[in-house]
Amino acid sequence: MPKSPYLFTTPRLGFRTWQPFDLDDFSVINADKEVMRYFQKPLSREETQAMIDRMLRLFDEKGYCYFAVDLLETKELIGTIGLGWKTFEADFTPCVDIGWRIGKKWWNQGLATEGASACLDFAKQKGIAEVLSMASAGNAPSIEVMKKIGMCYWKDFDHAELLAYPEIQRCSLYRISL
């Protein structure tokens, strides 16, 4: 029987490490202005490759990353859901962070919630005791996912890396103990 490409799955999603063939599809997602509304800016193909490279290094170092996520039914890359390592200047860093970025085609189907719940289970299996999540305070859809996966509001803060982006600098921080 062939080995599954997935580290873990949910009923609809497969989580794996990044592959060279992901660049085209992930570049399209990262270039979408609506998808990137609560980020500094849409990303170029080169910036998307740099992000993938960072995730591969993080996986090698820590055993987790923002994973490439496929819709199992079609094998399409829908985006990324997973765990990051945040070290920017704040009173709660360094920390493990959970986050997601999904192409518009797959919004409003519960996929971010399903995937993020699975990533919390993965974090627990890895022995991670606490996971944080942050989103621009106006990003109601992501904050709703945080609540749905059982995270609790902790506080709002001004993100140190977003000083040049006042419209998204104020972030809401959520956390969960595993």
TrEMBL record:
Annotated PROSITE patterns: GNAT
Species name: Algoriphagus jejuensis
Protein name listed in UniProt: GNAT family N-acetyltransferase
Domain N-acetyltransferase as annotated: residue spans: 13-172
Pfam families: Acetyltransf_3 (PF13302)
